[in-house]
Amino acid sequence: MHKDWKTYKLEDVSDRVTVGFVGSMAQEYIDSGVPMLRSQNIKPFSLDFNNIKYISYEFHKKIAKSALKGGDVAIVRTGAPGTACVIPNGLAPLNCSDLVIVSPNLKHVNPYFLCFYFNSIASHYVNSQLVGAVQQHFNVGAAKKMEINLPSLVEQNLIVDILKGIGDKIELNLQMNKTLEEMAMTLYKHWFVDFGPFQDGNFVESELGLIPEGWEVKKLYSLSSSISKGTTPTKSAVDGKDVSIKFIKVKDIDDLGSIDTDTLELIPESIHLSTLKRSILKSNDILFSIAGTIGRVAILPESLSNSNCNQAVAFIRLDDVQNFLGYIYLWLRSSEIQYKILASVVQGVQANVSLTVLRELELLIPQKVTLDKFNRQIAEYIKLIQLNRAENQHLKATRDLILPKLISGAVRVKDIEKTVAEVL
Predict the structure, then answer these.
(1) The whole model's pTM is what?
(2) Quick one: pLDDT at residue 4?
(3) Sign of the CA dihedral running 16, 20, 22, 23
(4) What DSSP state is assigned to residue 81?
(5) Is the separation of the CB atoms in 306 and 281 below 8 Å?
C-alpha cells in the first residue's frame, strides 16, 4: 500500500451495509413488475439480466430494506462470494435477494473503486470469512468489518477512469457483436425462412414444407463427422494432479456465442487423453448446450483447440467447415430450431436434450451457388465478430493484469497510462 493511502473499515466509509431479502421467494415471483436481482444476475463489473425474476410493487415496498438504487454496490453472498458490480442509474425500482448491499459514502469512496476492490484483492478476505456447512456464504457482518485501503478520492477517480474505460470498451464490443449477430440472423431468415430472394422461382413439397426447387432436406448427422458430448471427471481423478486443460461448461458460454476464457476450469491432461478423449475439442467445433440453460451456441476458436467439455455441452464437428460453419451456426441459433429443440426437452433432475434429438434435426440444404453467395455476405459479419471477441480477451487480460496493482497502490496511474492507451 502506498504511504498516502489510509485504511478504513467498510462500514465507516458507507452510508449502508446490509443484506438483501433472505427468505422464501417462490410464491412472490410474477411475470412482470419490479426486477428482483439474485446471485446469478451479478457478474464481475456488470449486471446480467438473463433469467431475471420479478416481484410486485407491493412486496417491493414491504421489503424496502433491500431496495437498490443507482451507485449501490451489489455483492454476491452465495455461489461466487465477493463478485460485485455497481448498480447503474436509471433502473429503479429494483430489489434483491440474498446479496450484500453497500451504499458507499461518496465523500470517501467511489462506488466503482469499491467494485474493483471486491473483484480483485478483496477475494482473500472474502474467502477467509465464508460461513455455513452446507452452502458457504459471505456474511454481512464480515463485510462491515472488512478493512479497505483507500487513496484520495481524486486518485480513486483516476483509477476508476482507467479501469472503467477498459470495461466500457469491452461492453461496446459486446454491443457491436450483438448488432452484427442480428444483421447476420436477419439475412439468414430472409433467405432461408422467408425465401425472400427466391419467391419468383419454383417450389416443391418437402419434409419441411414448400422449399425452392433444387434444394434438399438432410439430417444434421449426415453433415457431421461427430456429434457427441463430454463428461465430468470424478473428484478423485482430479484431486492432487496438475491441471492444464481448459474445461468448458454451459456457464462459460454466453447468449451471444462468446466463450469466457476467464471462467474456465482446468482438468489434468491425463484425464483429457484417457477418460475424456472422446470429447477433445477442435477449432470450429460448434458447441450447443443440452442441459441446464439449453440452446446456447458457440463456435470454438483456435485458442481453445484441444480443450474439453462436460456432459451439458454437445459438440458438432462438421465434415465441410468452409461451406457450412456459418450457415449451421445461424440455423442452430434461429428461433425455429431453438423452439423445436426446447420442445424435445426431457425433464429430470436437470432438464436436458438428448444427442439423438440433435443428430436427427432436419435442415434445409440450398444449392451450392446460393450457399456460396450467402457465405460471402456474412463473411464480414463473422470476421468482425471474431475480431471483437479477440480484442475483448486482450482487454480482459490487460484489466486482470493492472487491476490488482492499481487497486493496491503497487503502481500509480501515471505509470500505466501508456499501456492502457495502447489497448484502447
Answers:
(1) 0.85
(2) 84
(3) positive
(4) T
(5) yes
